[in-house]
Amino acid sequence: MTRRLGNLPGSETVTSFVGRRAMVSEIRTLLGSARLVTLLGPGGMGKTRLAIRVAETAHRAFADGVWLVELAELSDPALTDHAIIDALGVPDRSAESAEEVLVEHLQDKNLLLVIDNCEHLLDACGDLIAAVLRAAPGVRIIATSREALHVPGEHVVPVPPLSFTNDEGRADRNPLKYEAVELFVQRAAAAVPGFTLDAENREVVARLCARLEGMPLAIELAAVRLQAMGATEILDRLEDRFQALSTVIRGAPARQQTLRAAVEWSYALCSPAEQTAWARLSIFPGGFDLDAALAVIGHDSLTAHEATDAVTGLVSKSVVLRQTHSTGARYHMLETIRQFGRELLHGSDAELDVGRRHMHHFADLAARACQDWSGPRQREWSSMLRREQVNFREALRFGFDNDADPSVAVRTTVDLRHLWVMGASREGREWIDKALTALRADTPLRARALWVAGWVRQVQGEPIGSTAILTECVDAARRLGDQVTRARAEQFLGVNELLGYHLDDAETLLSGAQATYRSLGAADSESLIGLAAHGWLRLIEGDSQEAERIAEECRRLSRDIGESWAATWALWVLGLIGWTRSDEILATAALREAIEIKRELGDWLGIPCCVEVLAWMLAESGQHRRAARLMGANRELWLPIGQPMFGFITYLEAHENYTATLRAALGDAQFEAEHTAGTHLSPDATVDYALGTPRQTRRADSSPLTRREGQVAQLVAEGLTNREIAEHLIISPRTAEAHVENILSKLGYTSRAQIATYVRADLSPDSRPAQSR
Predict the structure, then answer these.
(1) Contact, 547 vs 565, CB < 8 A?
(2) 224/614 Cα distance (integer angstroms)
(3) Spatial contact of 603 and 594, defined as CB atoms under 8 Å apart
(4) DSSP state of 512
(5) Each residue's pLDDT tens digit, 313-333
(6) Do 395 and 359 meet the contact criterion of CB atoms below 8 Å apart?
(7) DSSP letter string over 301-326?
(8) 399 and 407 in contact (C-beta within 8 Å)?
(9) Helix 335-345 and helix 272-281: axis angle, to 10°?
């Protein structure tokens, strides 16, 4: 047998390679046209092992072998060329410079160099690699680094985490199809002989890998930890993952023997300004934009310019990850990286100041969104509210728990009312109750908090509790002379009276609120929703003609100010009018238009209201199976909100009557089968089913993606971040991230832009575009 040329570690000295099969293939293909491929990513992501794997599989293409150059332990940039010479086994020629010796040796060779860990020697590596590429046309290079080398012709391939299942681990009976779980099981079996994945540990292992975000080093350390504790115990201790994963991997480079060592290596490579920024950016629990980053970084020791440079530097070093979004760049840290920064920030002199700056930035953002809500930018603001929800949550937590003056947090809670009412009412209720507790003084701010609290309880189907709070608000607003707040409270009190079938009282309150709005010239989403509610009252009273007139007036006034949310409630009223008249055309057209707009706005309160009435219309028209399935799907949409249809008894009875009708028409077995099938639809799939226009990302018979992955791919193509995808599909952010990584793996891609191209152009996986820099 011909001896293989090179110095790659033998198979007996390295652990088995798991996952990344598509990436290995892509990098090999890329080497056919690119002479320098840099594998980029943070520490512990498996760049070295991936590079070696590619080199192992490509050795036949290089007559003069494949050679590994390890630079991690080299601290002097002047010795970089010597390190490569030593790795190649080139005899020393003292009369010539090391670079000349290296270039002379390589100029007629056909070989592959794997240069590992270039990040701390960037300039030296970049200059030397550029010289080699100019002089030696038969040489190909794979470099691994936490920062790009910026050599002409360099192709950068970001190395993502291994794929992992959702945070709960319950959705998949075979989690071994995820790379992170496969790696954990293999390493666990090596550490604890006899370890296997079974029904008892399957869920906890899947959750553990998800909590570790698919980071190979962290997963390997956790697997070794099984020698001392169970997987459940490891999972419970992951709040402090550096302590939990302090196990040393013997034989690994010093920087990778523990998770802390890997992260500290990255930290040591950062400038003082970047180290400061790293700690301060850890305040963000999720993604953030540049404005938010500068708001928390750029003070005391750092100017705005220095702060911008620090963020750029952290991105280039793979500490902060950057994603392109339709509204601009978004940034985030892997949780392991962020937790290290939190340790640096915690207890420091800057900790409270950074938290306060974060709070004020998002308080100002919430205020701007609220003030500008009732206008043409409503969709934009709605998207922002959902995108930044995790940051608002952190700002409120700080404001209520750490700030001496809770008024900022109270004001922010009130300003976020559209987020609470459209789909986060359970969380909104917790914050608004905390606001009322924190601010007991009889002030205009507390009065506004009261009507928001009453509104939130109303949409959850609790009219009694809502009425008590709104009545308190009316009294407070009367004392304070706050006419708008009083009109708000009376408006929602009127809706509660409507829900309780006290129609005369409802008329008095709703008419009075509208009169106040007209006298003050107030036209906004809240007042227009009150107008739509007035039209609903007329319908319940039996005057569908007047109800239709009022609903159309609401739509016209909404158009006049560029508003669309209140208009969807007017459309809902028109849908109810069509239902009462058995006018399928009117009902269906109005409800479908409302659903389409509500989906764009993320109004997951209004969507099930509309879907409910659509299901009734389907039952009326004899589409019994479709109606039964839609009812099952809609039940799932109501669960995170509260009582269906605001607890309005007439519509609850209508629901029960249509259920009985469908059971009679289909029989119990078929009804249950359709209803159960509906409960398995995702929220977005429910909307598609209701509209009868499912969005296809690719032909089902040719796509390697599952239905859910196809939905995620579509949303990626639309420019949504993982967190926005999670909010859109109502799944956890980690689940969304896992789906994206699965898509990348299945298609053999490395970037979200490539997914977008695949969706838009219906490309086959073999025609994927290369990424270069």
Answers:
(1) no
(2) 55
(3) no
(4) H
(5) 998 888 888 887 777 789 988
(6) yes
(7) T--HHHHHHHHHHHHHTTSSEEEEET
(8) no
(9) 100
CA distance 212 to 222: 9
| Strand 328-332 relative to strand 321-325, pairing | antiparallel
Whether the Cβ atoms of residue 256 and residue 42 lie closer than 8 Å to each other: no
Measured from the Cβ of residue 194, the count of other Cβ atoms closer than 10 Å reads: 6
Is pLDDT above 90 for 598?
A: yes
Burial 272-298 (b: 16+ CB within 10 A, else e): ebbbbbbbbbbbbbbbbbbebbbbbbb
The owner of tokens 């205009």 is: 444
Assign 3-state DSSP to the chain and report helix, strand, coil percentages, each to 5.
65, 5, 30
Is residue 162 within 8 A of residue 178, CB to CB? The reply is: yes
pLDDT in tens, 55-80: 988 888 899 999 999 887 787 888 88
Put residue 574 in one of left, alpha, beta given phi > 0 → left and psi -120 to 50 → alpha. Answer: alpha
How sure is the predictor about 703, in pLDDT bands with cuts at 50, 70 and 90? low
Cα-based distances in Å from 537 to 501, 524, 548: 10, 20, 11
Q: How far apart are CA 72 and CA 386, in angstroms?
A: 42
Exposure on the CB side of residue 9, measured as CA atoms within 13 A: 16
* The amino acid at 199: A
Assigned token pair, 351: 């900790």
Residues contacting 422, CB < 8 A, separation 6+: 382, 565, 601, 602, 603, 604, 605, 606
CA dist 495 and 16 (Å) reads 65
- Which of 247, 162, 250 shows the shortest CA–CA distance to 208? 162
Angstrom CA distances, 536 to 169, 518, 530, 554, stand at 44, 19, 10, 12
Reading phi first (left if > 0) and then psi (alpha if -120 to 50, else beta), residue 526 is in alpha
The CA-to-CA distance between both ends of the chain, in Å, stands at: 41
Let me know: does 625 contact 670? Beta carbons within 8 Å: yes
Contact between residue 496 and residue 502 where contact means Cβ atoms under 8 Å apart: no
Separation CA 521–CA 733 (nearest Å): 42
* pLDDT number for residue 769: 36
- Kindly report the length of the chain: 773
Closest CA to 44 of 175, 159, 129: 159
Q: Which pLDDT score, from 0 to 100, does residue 692 have?
A: 81
Closest residue by Cα to residue 429 from 401, 446, 421: 421
Greater confidence (247 vs 665) lies with 665
Tokens describing residue 724: 């926005």
For the entire predicted model, the pTM comes to 0.74
* Look-up of token digits 């009276």: 497
How far is Cα 226 from Cα 188, in angstroms, rounded to an integer?
7
